[in-house]
Write a structure and sequence with these properties.
Blueprint: E1 2-9, H1 15-31, E2 35-42, E3 49-56, H2 59-66, H3 72-79, E4 86-92, H4 104-108, H5 110-123, H6 142-153, H7 159-164, H8 166-172, H9 181-197, H10 204-224
Antiparallel strand pairs: 1-3, 1-4, 2-3
Helix pairs in contact: 1-3, 5-6, 5-9, 9-10
């Protein structure tokens, strides 16, 4: 992860226009798979000073992925009137972290790492007799969608919720599928093997939390695949953190 700081000095009479432009521009930031989170802060002692803080998955994700992606042009069009007001625009890498530390998503390597994981997972399914039938009709971008979902659960941006319908949409994909315990178990085993293959972090803290989520999520899928299972359209997206050994997910504060 890399942090970009853009510091502005905006005259008082343009504060409202500046904030309105960035509220609109934020929608394009949130659509980028490379943007993890962002915020704008206003100076307390110096109210004309504003700081835009953006967490990117990497410097390359910002400078190449975002700037060459479809979200950049509409974003730039909205903020262009304020480019002359920029006093600093630089990238920073964290060297000392507070007690909160990075999210599991950040520690894993962000969306690129998760996309490598699920691309590897689905690429070899032809040799998996237990799993191949489950994904025979999966869309071409299935790995990308699952990576976005897992990324959001592990603390990443709300990409899946905004593009594909959130947790309720994921549950619907499992209704009536008749999954078996053997399939669930093999799904977890294969993902763990693929995590090794693509170089996901193997420290005990991350792996215990990651595998705990795979176990929880796959068992939930098993329940939702049983006859008579239904979907709660308001089901919140799970949020999975480090915990002591991975722990159960914790809903966001506004959903707890």
């Amino acid at each position: 992860m890399i942090v970009e700081y853009v510091r502005y000095e905006i005259p008082a009479e343009r504060h409202a226009t500046f904030l309105e432009a960035y509220r609109a521009a934020a929608a394009h930031l949130s659509r980028s798979r490379h943007c993890l989170r962002y915020e704008i802060a206003q100076g307390v002692e110096e109210p004309n000073h504003f700081t835009l803080r953006i967490e990117w998955d990497s410097r390359e994700g910002h400078e190449q992925g975002f700037r060459r992606g479809p979200e950049f042009r509409p974003f730039l069009a909205l903020v262009r009137p304020f480019l002359a007001d920029i006093r600093e625009m630089k990238h920073y890498a964290a060297v000392v972290r507070g007690a909160g530390g990075p999210t599991l998503y950040e520690w894993a390597g962000g969306l690129p790492a998760l996309e490598r994981l699920f691309s590897r997972f689905y690429a070899g399914l032809a040799d998996e007799p237990l799993l191949a039938p489950l994904f025979a009709a999966a869309p071409a971008d299935h790995a990308t969608r699952v990576a976005a979902f897992v990324g959001e659960v592990l603390g990443g941006p709300p990409t899946y919720g905004e593009r594909y319908g959130g947790h309720a949409a994921m549950v619907r994909h499992h209704l009536g599928r008749g999954l078996t315990e053997a399939q669930r178990r093999r799904w977890v085993e294969r993902l763990v093997d693929c995590a090794d293959d693509v170089g996901l972090p193997d420290d005990p803290e991350f792996r215990s939390a990651f595998v705990a989520y795979l176990e929880w999520g796959s068992r939930l899928a098993l329940v939702n695949a049983r006859p008579g299972a239904t979907v709660d359209p308001d089901a919140p997206m799970p949020r999975w953190g480090w915990g002591e050994v991975g722990g159960p997910f914790v809903a966001p504060p506004d959903e707890a």
